[in-house]
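Field notebook, page 338. I keep forgetting to write these up properly, so this time I am using the form the group agreed on. The chain and the ligand, 3-phosphoglyceric acid, are recorded exactly as supplied. Prediction of the bound pose follows.
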Amino acid sequence: MNRAMSTISTHREMIRHGEFHLTRKKLKNKKMKKILIATEKPFAKSAVDGIKKILEAAGFETVLLENYAQKAELLQAASDADAIIIRSDIVDADVLNAAKNLKIVIRAGAGYDNIDLATATAKGVVAMNTPGQNSNAVAELAMGMMVFAARNNFNGSSGTELKGKKLGLHAFGYVSKAVATIAHGFGMEIYAFDPFVDKGAIEAEGIHYVDDVNELYKTCQYVSLHMPVNAQTKKSVNFDLLSLMPKGATLVNTARKEVIAEEGLLQMFAERADFKYISDVEPDCKSLIAEKFSGRFYFTLKKMGAQTSEANNNAGLAAARQIVDFFTKNDTTFQVNK
Ligand code: 3PG
């Protein structure tokens, strides 16, 4: 090799060497995004595995916090997270303030009343949900609860059937639609009230459209609640409404306990011996109901409407994909704090 050639090759080496160091430096500076999966009520293992697979394939690091008992654990885990996937976990101002790097929080599910949206917006954090992903699971539970109530909580006595009974859907979203599909199979006559849904969309499902909420309760022996909890719906299911229900009234709540005016619920139990209340989560007045109205209620110990492996997979994987799309394509399709 002559001198000139050797100088060229040395330069090439130097350039390569330099590039190598530059790349390493760049990688070192570009920290991997950390995605926290924070679920006090854990997803099925298959869902956790699927979520991790999607996020890690996109080059993100995943951290799992399950079954935590103290808020401090969530604050600690969130402190360096770029994104958080949650279920009914509370993401309040404390969590949002502690999570200094947070860009997005995804509620793997429908209701996002557990996220402090005002603080998230003020801090520039995007909040999303995964609409429709767990609705079939919730709908199946609502129907199962109706059968359970109709058969006197499976106590062996002679009960009644759902066939031919009138079912009122209070609010008409993904879960209601799925309830209606199953309830049609049971031979129920279905009515729906939702001020935000067109008459045509409800009637297209073979459901009677009701434009007055009082009318829904007056008409239907079974009423299934499906509204979100917000300033308008909080404590909106009160005695005035419940007392309109015909004989054999059964209220099914797979929405939120906060939509019930509990003093009205207790009054309904006291004044209407035919009334039953079946709910996915206990009301605050559970001990009073248990003490006086035995056999006319059932409450799940922990909210379990969406607690199926199918729903966990659907909602969890959708959340993971939404995070990838958010960071790679700036996709904010499911943002709820726009
Ligand atoms: C929802 O809003 O999606 C349901 O209430 C399910 O909640 P969960 O994920 O806590 O079971």
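OBSERVATIONS:
- Confidence is low (pLDDT under 50) at residues 1-29.
- DSSP finds 13 helices and twelve strands in the chain.
FOLLOW-UP: compare against the apo run.
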